[in-house]
Specification:
This protein is α/β, with parallel strands linked by helices. Helix content is about 30%, strand content about 20%. The protein has 6 helices and 10 strands, in the order E-H-E-H-E-E-H-E-H-E-E-E-H-E-H-E. The strands form 2 sheets. A 7-stranded parallel beta sheet has the order 1-10-9-6-2-3-5, covered by helices on one side. Strands 4-8-7 form a 3-stranded antiparallel beta sheet. Helix 6 links the parallel strand 9 (about 190-195) and strand 10. The radius of gyration is 17 Å and the shape is globular. The two termini are about 15 Å apart. The protein binds 6-phosphogluconic acid. 6-phosphogluconic acid binds near residues 41, 42, 45, 138 and 140.
């Protein structure tokens, strides 16, 4: 695993870098096999990134496939639905074919059935263990990533690619469906996109303590690249040698 820690002055600068990286990775994938696969996280951190991505003219949306890292198990209309946020900030602003969009079902199915269906969709699309060209992750205020929360069985899942996450503890607010570490850690590139000084302690532990049990610290793409895109606030507890 190759790891890079990059610190930017603000969210705007983070997003500009991330878009350049997206363009570089997507063009390489398209040149190699004709399409680019990316899995996106929800939450507040990536909103500006998604809005700015929608204005990036040079991206080839017709050759881009968008998947979801995780989903809160709430209807699309809910303000908490990740796919709705990504649709509003990005997908409805670009000319991307419907067949290239791969949301996680949260209506008319059980959480278990939704997770099973998403796993089937992934396996039929990739035909092997899915290796995403890029996965964009955040870090929560308890060190979670995706919907992999400490204390849930999802964190120790070794076989399934997608699992339901029943409600455990207030941090989750909603039941979830999430990609698991076997899937995340098979990616070519994983980008943590993290801003907000309130997470500085978690980011320091994830980057500094290789034995950390925080879920975000367990993202280690075995034959891929791990990139931390941080703002100065969230990187405030890092010192040079830890980068
Ligand atoms: C979700 C996300 C989750 C998110 C972190 C950070 O469904 O909540 O996928 O993993 O990335 O919770 O969220 P913020 O960016 O809102 O701090």
């Amino acid at each position: 695993m190759v790891r890079e820690v990059l610190v930017f002055k603000d969210n705007e600068a983070m997003a500009e870098f991330a878009i350049e990286k997206w363009e570089e990775i997507s063009q390489g994938a398209i040149d190699e096999r004709g399409y680019f696969t990316v899995a996106l996280s929800g939450g507040r951190s990536p909103v500006l990134l998604y809005e700015k991505l929608s204005a990036a003219k040079e991206l080839k949306w017709d050759q881009t496939h968008i998947f979801m890292v995780d989903e809160r198990f709430v209807p699309y209309e809910s303000d908490w639905n990740n796919y709705r946020m990504i649709t509003e900030t990005l997908l409805r602003r670009v000319n991307i074919p419907e067949v290239n969009l791969h949301p996680i079902l949260t209506e008319e199915v059980s959480m278990q059935a939704s997770a099973e269906k998403y796993e089937e969709d992934l396996i039929s699309f990739f035909t092997t263990l899915p290796r995403f060209d890029l996965i964009v992750l955040g870090i929560g205020m308890d060190g979670h990533t995706a919907s992999l929360f400490q204390g849930t069985s999802a964190v120790s899942e070794k076989k399934r690619l997608v699992v339901p996450v029943p409600l455990t503890g207030a941090a989750m607010r909603y039941e979830r469906v999430t990609m698991t570490f076997p899937l995340l850690n098979n990616a070519e590139n994983v980008m943590f996109f993290v801003n907000g000084a309130d997470k500085a302690e978690f980011v320091r532990e994830v980057i500094k303590d290789e034995n950390s049990s925080l879920p975000a610290a367990m993202v280690k793409p075995k034959s891929g690249k791990l990139i931390f895109v941080l703002d100065k606030g969230v990187a405030s507890l890092l010192t040079r040698e830890q980068n």
